[in-house]
Write a structure and sequence with these properties.
Elements (H helix, E strand, L loop, with lengths): L17 E3 L1 H7 L3 E6 L11 H15 L3 E7 L3 H13 L2 E7 L11 H8 L3 E5 L7 H14 L4 E3 L11 H13 L9 E6 L3 H13 L5 E5 L4 H19 L9 E3 L12 H14 L8 H13 L8 E6 L12 H4 L7
Parallel strand pairs: 2-10, 3-4, 3-6, 4-5, 7-8, 7-10, 8-9
Antiparallel strand pairs: 1-2
Helix pairs in contact: 2-3, 2-6, 3-4, 6-7, 7-8, 9-10
Length: 337
């Protein structure tokens, strides 16, 4: 792929490793599982979102902005990464965070605590206003302009035709690393929500000609909604690059969303704790962990067998584990596996 990348500010520690999860593969009794460790992109900036932010902060700098505005849930990994990147680069940061109606002020824990420590200004929105998030961010940008500031708006998850390029870079990494996997082509299993990660993966797979099945495991929305988000990003990117949209097939999976975004069952937490006890890795219950639960259930259902390979993209977000109640599991002695 010779297509030139947009300007980029380097924030992440790259490349992240691809590791064979030997004990997890054996215990789950299905395919060989390989984990792409995007939880190691940095400490405060850990997770996949920082890859997208490298392109958005470069664009913010080019525009002359002194303020960045974005949105997410209270425990949003993207919002936390944005706040800490803004602190590192010297930007003011305003976060529009969705919180449950029943919560007056969220507890200072997990990602929300780090938002506050980074000095971000927080505006809360009720769930009913979430559909208006783009309009609300635009209104906030106008307010900042009236106050003499220049604001750059980063969409939910930095998932647009600009942020997508973060995962084009990521797939270049993976293409080099995956040559060590022998046997059947590895299915790339990843969490899908705002669509940017899936869009970048699919775009790069198409342009690089990678023979790699792609499975986008939704953590909240329907498969149709995720597909529509990805298609919209591809269409905009195709216009900007004067190229065609990708034709690579992607399997959109919504069988494991449970109660919806951010709603995690005891069974989900049990599976995530089991995976931690078999890998030594921490999984965010809301996002990465929920995709891992989906993979576990697909293996149990026989979707993948011993001759298959799976690359599980660890999209990071371990701080959100400290906002969930693992006390029932943690109180027990001995291994969870």
């Amino acid at each position: 792929m010779t297509q030139e990348l947009p300007p980029r500010i380097h924030l992440a520690s790259l490349p992240t490793p691809l590791e064979h999860a030997e004990r997890l593969s054996k215990h789950w009794g299905g395919p060989q599982i390989w984990i792409k460790r995007d939880d190691l992109t940095g400490f405060g900036l850990s997770g996949n979102k920082v890859r997208k932010l490298e392109f958005h902060f470069a664009a913010a700098a080019a525009s002359g902005a002194d303020t960045v505005i974005t949105c997410g849930a209270v425990q949003s990994n993207h919002s936390r990464a944005t706040a800490l990147a803004a602190a590192r680069l010297g930007y003011r940061c305003i976060l529009l965070l969705r919180k449950p109606d029943c919560v007056e002020v969220p507890e200072l824990q997990g990602n929300y605590l780090l938002d506050r420590l980074a000095g971000a200004t927080i505006r809360f929105m009720p769930p009913n206003d979430w559909e208006l998030r783009d309009e609300l961010m635009s209104a906030e940008a106008a307010t900042q302009r009236a106050a003499g500031h220049a604001a750059w708006v980063i969409p939910e998850g930095a998932s647009d035709a600009l942020g997508m390029w973060g995962f084009v870079v990521a797939m270049r990494e993976l293409a080099d690393q995956a040559v060590r996997i022998t046997g059947a082509p590895a299915t790339l299993w990843h969490a899908a929500s705002s669509g940017g990660t899936t869009a970048g993966i699919g775009w790069a797979a198409d342009r690089l000609g990678l023979d790699i099945p792609i499975a986008a495991c939704s953590i909240g929305d329907s498969a149709a909604e995720i597909k529509a988000k990805v298609s919209a990003i591809w269409q905009q990117a195709a216009i900007e690059t004067a190229t065609e949209t990708p034709t690579v097939p992607i399997e959109y999976i919504d069988r494991h969303i449970g109660g919806g975004y951010g709603i995690v069952s005891d069974e989900d937490l049990d599976i995530q704790a089991e995976a931690t006890s078999l890998t030594g890795q921490v999984f965010d219950p809301t996002y990465t962990g929920k995709a891992l639960v989906g993979l576990r259930r697909e293996i149990a259902a026989g979707t993948y067998g011993k001759k298959d390979n799976i690359i599980f993209w660890h999209t990071g977000g371990g701080f959100a584990a400290f906002s969930h109640d693992f006390s029932r599991i943690a109180a027990a002695d001995g291994p969870h596996a």
